[in-house]
């Protein structure tokens, strides 16, 4: 049975962000291991596109490890901040203290 990749009735996981010490080295590793596309990269973070989601590589202290969720009413969570990649979002903590980034519905970089 083939699994449905996208369900319009559900919110979309945009990315998972993991900490790395060296963004360029981590990008090289992921590109050598997997078929990914670089959507954005600078010295403090990179966004790698997979077929079904993205992986953010973040430098500790610059960006928290987190998950990013696209939400149709992101502004209902508070004031959104526009980022250098053109997305707009707000960071929240879940019930267990994990960082969750809520992104505008047009966040597909």
Description:
- With 109 residues, this protein is mainly beta.
- 10% of the residues lie in helices and 38% in strands.
- It is built from one helix and eight strands, in the order βαβββββββ.
- It has an eight-stranded mixed sheet with strand order 2-3-4-1-5-8-7-6.
- β6 and β7 form a beta hairpin.
Concise synopsis of the structure shown:
The chain is mainly beta. It has one helix and eight strands, in the order E-H-E-E-E-E-E-E-E. The chain has one helix at residues 23-33, and strands at residues 12-19, 37-41, 45-49, 54-58, 66-70, 81-82, 88-93, 99-103.
* Contiguous runs where pLDDT drops below 50 for at least 5 residues: none
Widest sheet: strand ordering: 2-3-4-1-5-8-7-6
What's the β-strand tally? Answer: 8
What is the helix/strand order? EHEEEEEEE
Q: What is the averaged pLDDT score? A: 90
Rounded to the nearest angstrom, the radius of gyration is 14 Å
Please report which band the strand proportion falls in: under 5%, 5-15%, 15-25%, 25-35%, 35-45% or over 45%. Answer: 35-45%
Distance between the termini: 30 Å
Structural class: mainly beta
Give a topology summary.
Layout: E1 12-19, H1 23-33, E2 37-41, E3 45-49, E4 54-58, E5 66-70, E6 81-82, E7 88-93, E8 99-103
Parallel strand pairs: 1-4, 5-8
Antiparallel strand pairs: 1-5, 2-3, 3-4, 6-7, 7-8
Q: Main attributes?
A:
mainly beta, 1 helix, 109 residues, eight-stranded mixed beta sheet
């Amino acid at each position: 049975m083939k699994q449905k990749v996208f369900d319009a009735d559900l919110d979309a996981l945009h990315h998972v962000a993991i900490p790395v010490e060296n963004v360029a080295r981590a990008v090289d590793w992921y590109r050598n291991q997997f078929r990914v596309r670089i959507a954005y990269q600078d010295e403090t973070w990179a966004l790698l596109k997979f077929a079904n989601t993205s992986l953010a590589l973040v430098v500790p202290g610059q960006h928290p490890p987190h998950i990013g969720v696209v939400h149709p009413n992101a502004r209902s969570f508070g004031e959104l901040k526009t980022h250098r990649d053109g997305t707009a979002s707000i960071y929240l903590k879940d019930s267990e203290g994990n960082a969750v980034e809520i992104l505008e519905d047009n966040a597909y970089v």
